[in-house]
Design brief:
Helices cover 23% and strands 22% of the residues. The chain is α+β, with helices and mostly antiparallel strands.
Length: 481
């Protein structure tokens, strides 16, 4: 009997998840040479390809310019950035898309540490999932630095704000030297000896505002005359035939960048209004679904894990049958480990099989945890249930999601505070998009669509669409706030 050919998952590093359509086409050509019909994305905005032993030579033949960026032993790491969020989601005013692109280019080496370059005003890209987390401050061109270094007992904050154009140099020194230290002050002193820094004193501690997880799929407005498009595949296997055609479309219609998100999806920004219809037609002709429920989108699963994908489908089906909302929440699945790094609101941990079981078949057991205030940026996970079977998970997660919405109602940030003259809070009836939960309030109207304040929803034209995701008027529902 022939031995099964050993297959390894190769990672192609895409700094900050930003790639041009032409570069992606080159990767697609490599995938074709490897006899693949799909590619996958990783949680650090990289591209993943399964490669067999007898195909190793093809990496250099078909993809020589990326030979330093293809890796499988996890010695090196891809740089994560929130470039994908710039101009599409909330952002710190001084940061532009160009800022991230320049920063990516400043890194002339492949880091061995996980480096995040993130804006705290957005919440699509995890903030604390790296070893070196550079987090934009309110001061132009200055960043907080949070360190979660391997071998150190706990994460710790750098004592000063770091200048934008010192980031790559400081990251390199820390990477080379951190194992020789056990405290931040000595490491900080060494960095200042080796790098001509332009630090700034921290006058106020970092405060990351809580924001609900966004809806990141479909066609959405971006500024006044542009759109962004999010594409998502349930199984994280993106058909290379479609992707190749999509790259050609992007080049034909002046879309210069494709972004990979940490949620294993892709986003393209800067779609001109005049090309929006052509892109919608392109997707429609190929039967591409861009209206997945948030029940589908808010999951973070390990790559190529059939157990995790099967469990997700089972839970999502249960949520759907019970008409449950998880909007704003994120759910992760992980094999339990000694030093886990999570970045979702709720976590399903799969427990390892008991060693005593040996060859006997055992039933999988799971733990359920959730973040303090359901905010992943707190990094404090609270056990909710332990050693439960898979059949129990949907009910537990439903109860947790209800707890999330209950605490939203009772939190100080979400309470409607009446003024001193009237203690009665009036309920307001508004229309809400069924897909992204955007509210149409007739007292405000919709300035971007030239809808004047005071215009009732029933008087809007039939052609009216959601200001955020573009859903048609008929897909709004009446809700009471």
């Amino acid at each position: 009997m022939l031995n099964k050919m050993i297959e390894t998952l190769k990672r192609i590093f895409i700094k900050g998840g930003v790639i041009t359509p032409n570069e992606l086409k080159q990767i697609i050509q490599l995938a074709k040479a490897l006899n693949l019909d799909s590619i996958s994305f990783g949680s650090r905005q990289d591209i993943l390809l399964p490669v067999k032993e007898n195909q190793e030579h093809l990496l250099k033949t078909y993809f020589p310019e990326y030979k330093q960026d293809i890796e499988e032993n996890h010695k090196f790491q891809n740089i994560v950035s929130s470039y994908v969020s710039a101009d599409a989601f909330a952002q710190t005013p001084w940061i532009s898309s160009t800022t991230y692109l320049y920063l990516h280019e400043e890194f002339k080496h492949n880091p061995t540490l996980k480096i995040n370059l993130v804006d705290p005003q957005q919440n699509l890209v995890p903030i604390y999932s790296g070893n070196l987390n550079f987090i934009a401050s309110k001061n132009e061109d200055y960043w907080y630095l949070n360190l979660n270094l391997p071998g150190w007992n706990k994460d710790i904050n750098y004592p000063v704000l770091v200048y934008t154009w010192n980031i790559s140099k400081i990251a390199k020194v820390i990477e080379d030297e951190y194992l020789n230290f056990d405290n931040i002050q000595d490491l900080y002193n060494l960095v200042n000896e080796k790098v001509d820094t332009n630090n700034k004193v921290i006058k106020e501690p970092l405060n990351i505002p809580y924001k609900q997880f966004p809806y990141y799929e479909g066609m959405n407005k971006m500024g006044i005359s542009q759109y962004w498009l999010g594409l998502y595949w349930r199984n994280n296997k993106y058909d290379i035939g479609f992707l190749e055609e999509f790259c050609n479309f992007c080049m034909d219609y002046k879309i210069s960048k494709i972004c990979i998100t940490p949620w294993k999806s892709i986003i393209v920004k800067g779609i001109e209004k005049k090309y929006k219809f052509m892109l919608e037609k392109f997707l429609g002709q190929r039967g591409i679904n861009v209206r997945h429920s948030s029940l589908e989108l808010n999951w973070h699963l390990p790559v190529d894990n059939t157990t995790a994908l099967k469990l997700k489908r089972f839970i999502v089906k249960s949520f759907d049958q019970n008409d449950i909302s998880t909007y704003g929440l994120t759910i992760g699945y992980h094999e339990r480990s000694e030093h886990p790094q999570y970045f979702t609101s709720m976590i399903i941990e799969r427990n390892p099989s008991p060693k005593i079981a040996n060859e006997f078949e055992t039933i999988d057991s799971f733990n359920v945890l959730y973040c303090k205030n359901f905010d992943p940026n707190t990094r404090k996970y609270i056990p909710y249930a332990q050693n439960v079977e898979s059949v129990e998970l949907p009910g537990l997660l439903m109860k947790l999601s209800q707890l999330y919405f209950d605490q939203l109602d009772n939190s100080k940030e979400n309470l409607v505070k009446p003024d001193n003259t009237d203690t009665h809070v009036t309920e307001v009836q508004v229309q809400q998009c069924d897909h992204c939960m955007t509210v149409y309030d007739e007292t405000i109207g919709d300035p971007e669509a030239n809808i004047l304040p005071g215009t009732p929803f029933n008087q809007l034209p039939d052609s009216y669409t959601c200001s955020l995701c573009g859903a048609p008027k008929k897909e709004f529902s009446t809700v009471v706030l």
